[in-house]
Amino acid sequence: AQTVTQSQPEMSVQEAETVTLSCTYDTSESDYYLFWYKQPPSRQMILVIRQEAYKQQNATENRFSVNFQKAAKSFSLKISDSQLGDAAMYFCAYLSGNQFYFGTGTSLTVIP
Amino acid sequence: GAVVSQHPSWVICKSGTSVKIECRSLDFQATTMFWYRQFPKQSLMLMATSNEGSKATYEQGVEKDKFLINHASLTLSTLTVTSAHPEDSSFYICSASLRLTISYEQYFGPGTRLTVT
């Protein structure tokens, strides 16, 4: 069964600094997608970044980038130049076929 | 981008009554819609998966007679919480699936906060 593990329930970062959120997953599939979602206090799930497993190049979206290690089944999110608006719950998610599997989330606090 | 709406965003109902939550894909036809439940500071828990015109598939432990799902069209799915009790108070999120190349990406609604008094 596919599982997604986020080992950091809470993280904090100083404004303008860089923080990395960890995620590991377990699967026997070769084709799948990985996502990072942000859930601010409004609770709307917002897609931060997406990675296709068949792509070796790490995805990047502005200040957000991932370190995708397929063999290690690791998918970490790096947030550069952290801003106050980055404070939220972050969920790592694995998608294969039509099924999403979410991690338990990491609560990120940004310190002014 | 694909937009999913939910209505209502917040509902309060009395114990024993039923409440319906609507999920709509506004600018695309969703092959599948999903219903999640989220408790405070916890992850999303998949309740059921529904395809248009067929019965929903419920996750283990979810009472299908209590959480009725109707997927009437490719743009609308409804979740009805029947005979609601205070323990059903939660945040309910729907998502709609849009097919991509080898997999399906889900677009999330803004959620519905249900409070049962």
Task: Provide a compact summary of the structure.
Chain A is an all-beta fold and 112 residues long. Chain A has strands at 3-5, 10-14, 19-21, 24-26, 33-39, 46-52, 60-61, 64-69, 74-79, 88-96, 99-102, 106-111.
Keywords:
heterodimer, A: 112 residues, mainly beta, six-stranded mixed sheet, four-stranded antiparallel sheet, globular, B: 117 residues, seven-stranded mixed sheet
Describe this structure in words.
The complex is a heterodimer of chains A (112) and B (117). Chain A is mainly beta and 112 residues long. Helix content of chain A is 0%, strand content 54%. Chain A contains no helices and 12 strands. Chain A has strands at 3-5, 10-14, 19-21, 24-26, 33-39, 46-52, 60-61, 64-69, 74-79, 88-96, 99-102, 106-111. In chain A, the strands form 3 sheets. In chain A, strands 2, 5, 6, 10, 11 and 12 form a 6-stranded mixed beta sheet that branches. The radius of gyration of chain A is 13 Å and the shape is globular. Chain A starts with a strand and ends with a strand. The relative contact order of chain A is 0.35. The model of chain A has no long low-confidence stretch (mean pLDDT 94). Chain B is mainly β. Chain B is globular and about 40 Å long. Chain B has no helices and 11 strands. In chain B, the strands form 2 sheets. In chain B, strands 2, 4, 5, 6, 9, 10 and 11 form a 7-stranded mixed beta sheet that branches. Classes of the chains: A mainly beta (112), B mainly beta (117). Chain A binds chain B through residues 31-33, 37, 42-45, 50, 89, 91, 95-100, 102-105, 107, and chain B through 32, 34, 38, 41-44, 46, 49, 91, 93, 95, 97, 100, 102-106, 108, 110-111.
